C-alpha cells in the first residue's frame, strides 16, 4: 500500500514538474478548458457531464451502426448492471430517511410542536426568498376571489 502511494506521488510529481511533457500539456489544456467553461462561460458542471455522456452515447451508437455495415467488430462495452445489493441498500437508506421525515411531520402536525413548525417556516422563507412572498400574495388574491386551489408552492 505504501509502495502504491509512492508510485502515485511520483506520477503526479512527473506531471507537475513537466518530466512527461505530453501528460503535462494534456493536464494544462484540459484544466484550462474546464476553467473557461465553468468560470468564464458560466457553464454548469451537471450540464457539462450530461452533454459529455450524451456525446459518448451518440458516438457509440454510430460506431455500432457503422460496424454492422462495414463488417467490423462492435465497440467493446462491458455489461452495465446495477447489483441487487446496491439497490436494496439504497432503498433501505431511503426508507429510513422517509420515515424520519414522516416522524417529524407527525410531530409537527399531531403533537403541535410549535418550535419545529416555526423553524420550518423560517427555513422556507429564507430558502426561497422572494418566491415565498409571491406565493403568499397569489394565495391572498385567490382567496379574495373565492377560487379554491389545492396547493400553491
UniProtKB/TrEMBL annotation:
The keyword Kinase does not apply. Pfam families: Reticulon. It is a multi-pass membrane protein. The gene is LOC107832505. InterPro entries: Reticulon, Reticulon-like. This is Reticulon-like protein. It comes from Nicotiana tabacum. It comes from the Eukaryota. It is found in: Endoplasmic reticulum membrane. The chain crosses the membrane at residues 46-64, 104-122. GO terms for cellular component: endoplasmic reticulum membrane. Keywords: Endoplasmic reticulum, Membrane, Transmembrane, Transmembrane helix. Residues 12-118 form the Reticulon domain. One of its GO terms (biological process) is response to bacterium.
Amino acid at each position: 500500500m505504501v509502495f502504491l502511494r509512492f508510485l502515485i506521488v511520483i506520477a503526479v510529481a512527473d506531471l507537475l514538474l513537466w518530466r512527461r511533457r505530453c501528460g503535462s500539456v494534456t493536464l494544462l489544456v484540459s484544466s484550462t478548458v474546464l476553467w473557461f467553461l465553468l468560470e468564464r462561460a458560466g457553464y454548469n458542471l451537471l450540464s457539462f457531464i450530461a452533454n459529455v455522456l450524451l456525446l459518448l452515447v451518440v458516438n457509440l451508437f454510430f460506431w455500432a451502426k457503422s460496424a454492422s455495415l462495414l463488417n467490423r467488430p462492435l465497440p467493446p462495452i462491458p455489461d452495465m448492471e446495477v447489483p441487487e445489493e446496491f439497490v436494496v441498500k439504497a432503498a433501505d437508506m431511503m426508507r429510513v430517511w422517509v420515515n424520519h421525515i414522516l416522524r417529524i411531520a407527525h410531530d409537527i402536525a399531531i403533537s403541535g410542536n410549535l418550535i419545529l413548525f416555526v423553524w420550518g417556516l423560517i427555513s422556507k422563507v429564507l430558502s426561497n426568498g422572494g418566491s415565498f412572498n409571491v406565493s403568499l400574495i397569489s394565495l391572498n388574491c385567490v382567496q379574495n376571489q373565492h377560487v379554491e386551489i389545492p396547493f400553491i408552492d
